[in-house]
Each structure stands twice: as C-alpha cells, then as structure tokens.
Amino acid sequence: MIKRFQRQMTRLVGCPHDCRYLLAVSGGADSMVMANLFLLSGYHFAIAHCNFHLRGEDSDRDMRFVQQWAEEHQLVCHVQEFNTLGEKEQTGESVEMAARRLRYQWFEAIGEDYDFVVTAHHANDDAETMLLNLTRGTGLKGLTGIPAVNGHIIRPLLPFSSEEIHAFAANQHIDFVTDCTNADERIKRNKIRHSVLPTLQTLNPNLIPTLLHNKEIWQQQYALYQQAVQELKERAVSENGTEVAIQRSVIDGHPYSEVLLYEILRPYRFSEADVKAILQTQQTGKIFLAPEHTLVVNRGEYLVRPTLSSTEEPVVFHNLDELRTLFNVAQMPNLGDLASLKRQDALYIAPDKLTFPVTVRHWRHGDFFYPLGGKGKRKLSDFFNDQKINRLEKQHILLFCIGEAIAWVVGHRSDERFKVLPSDPEYLTITKN
After folding, report:
1. Do residues 61 and 166 both lie within one domain?
2. How many angstroms separate the CA atoms of 368 and 387, rounded?
C-alpha cells in the first residue's frame, strides 16, 4: 500500500518531497493511516485537528489523542475548537453542514502556510457521495464524486477502499479512535454506508471498484460536456460590467435549451424551475428573481444583473470632499461653448447651484424631473419608457438630488433647472467614479 500511495502522491503533486502538507487528522482509522503513510514516506507535514464539541468527552479524547501522536513524532499540531451547535442555531444549517463549513474555512485560513491541505477521503467515501447525490437528485456532475484535487486540497487515499485502510492499520499496528456517531443511521451518509452499500454489494461484490471505474468515465464525459457548454456560452453570453446579456437566438432555438440556459444561469443561483418558467414566458419585461440576481426577459436577450438590496439607503453628502468619494468633480471656466455640454454621463452645473446636502438615491414611483432640452416636467417612469430602459436597469439607476429636486439621472440626463447659463463664469463637471 505504501508504494501505491507514493505513486498516487506523485500523480497528484509531481514531486511529493518538495512540498509542505497540512493533514486534516480526526484521529479515526482513515486519517491516522494517512498520517502514518506520510510519516513512512518521509514527507514534510503538520497536523490540523478540529474539535467540534459534539460528542462530549469523546470529542476531547480525540483531540488529546491527535495532539499526543503529533508530539510523539515531533510534528506541529494545529487545533481549533468550535461551538458547532451554536453556529447551527445562528445560521439554520444542519449540524453536518455547519461542521463542514467551519472545518474548511479554518483549513483555508491556516493552509496558506502550506502547499497542500490533505484530507483522508477514500474510495468508500467516494461511492457513498455518488449514491447520496443520486438519492437527492443530480446531474452528471454529481456522478463525478469527490475530486482528488480541488484547488490546493488533495485526497490521496481515494484509490483505496475502507477495507484496505483498516487492513493496513491492523498490519502496521496503527492506533486510532472510533467515532460512535458513525454507526448512527439517522445520518443519511451512515445509512448509505451501513445498509445501502452492503445490499448493493450482494448484487455486485466488486461494487466499489465498479463505481470508481464508472467515475473515471463520467468525469471524462462531464469534461466533454463542459467544453461543449463553454463553446455555446461564448456565442450566447456577453458581459458589460455587472450586467450579463444572453442572446435568445442561441438559447431558444437550441434543442437542449433548458440544459444550456441552466448551465449559464447556475452561477447566479437560478433554479431549474426558474429556467423552465423563463423559457416558457412570452412576456417582454417579465422579471425573475434569484437570491442575489435579477433576470429580465427582453425581446432579443435575457439580461441578468445583481439585485439591489431593498434596504439600501440613500447616501447623503454634506460637502464637496464627501462628494468626491463617489464622484469626480472638476472646475472649468465657461468659454461660451455651451452646446458641447451635453454628455449624458456628466452633470454640468454652476458652483452656486451645487448646494448641500446632496442626496444620491434610487428612483421611486412618482419621481419627476425636467429633462435637459425637453418641454417641461416629466415623470421618470415615462422618461425610462421613452429611453427603452427596462425594469431591471431601472433598479440600478441613481438619482443625484439637490434638496428635493433631481438634478441628474446619473448616466442618462441632467435637469434643465440646473444647466449652465451663459452668465455663469465657470462650471463644475461631475462624473461617476
């Protein structure tokens, strides 16, 4: 097993002896075998142990066991204790999810001093993950199992079964502790481990090797699938700042439009149900909301932007120095060429008309202003319609207000009441940072 392990390490990192590793060690059989394999191979490593305080004295026993083993072998041992139940109550996560998040956040923080963080996931864990994903519902990605390399996290025991690991522990007289909660079949993964896998192995005694072989095929198929999706994305998607435009001509006419649109929208956390509804709607201007993004259906495209928080408060500036934190302000002499002062991305205003406080806020129903060059008072909602500004864009438009008056619809039009006059000796040019 040692030789196979060393070959696997070479496949994963190239030159294993040139790297420094941080090993996640719980004290159980899997992680203690991994630690001993690193020790026997002469690799440079330290230990990281999490105490989640979920099993009373047993949790503290495991912590002391790992600390003692590290001390005996003169290894650095990082230990972090968590109030996992308190975290669960605060976030609403399950205990398992809270513990996993806390664990990897800590690994990320202390792992900066090491080339790789190493976990002891093995072949049975991989098989359990694939089966668990199947029971929850999954696409092709869920069948690719646990990655052997994920950023700077590596998992060199994935080719080894639980039986091989326990046999090596027995042969090498490796001590370990046992987590009694691993037998609790109320936990879904334990149900898979103790009931589902043994039942399936009566149908195929070589189930674990079979699943690992299938995993390699599914990984290749998923890579090919991703390549095809990426090529279609390049044709369909364009970005302009935080806005993403998805061309409907590429999506709507594709034979697998639902899968394609889902893959494009997945990073923005739109659900499969959202995607179905988006493709079925014929209503221009229809809006769909994800947790942090908004999609609007236009005639030729789907537009996606970050959703503004409903609690976002207006920003009030009390002087010119404060205003310059959000805007560029330049003072210019008035040379009489007023016809050139028509940029939509700028507000041109005489200094004496820029009175404080200035408020920058989002538009509200009922807002109005006097568009520069227009014929008087105009509702902003009508102005937006005339400018073909969709409902999604409206959410992001800022209003530059002097007192109660809107002096500038930022990036679109300034107000006639604040324009520069021939009698003004100078003027300010204000643009967004």
Report:
1. yes
2. 15
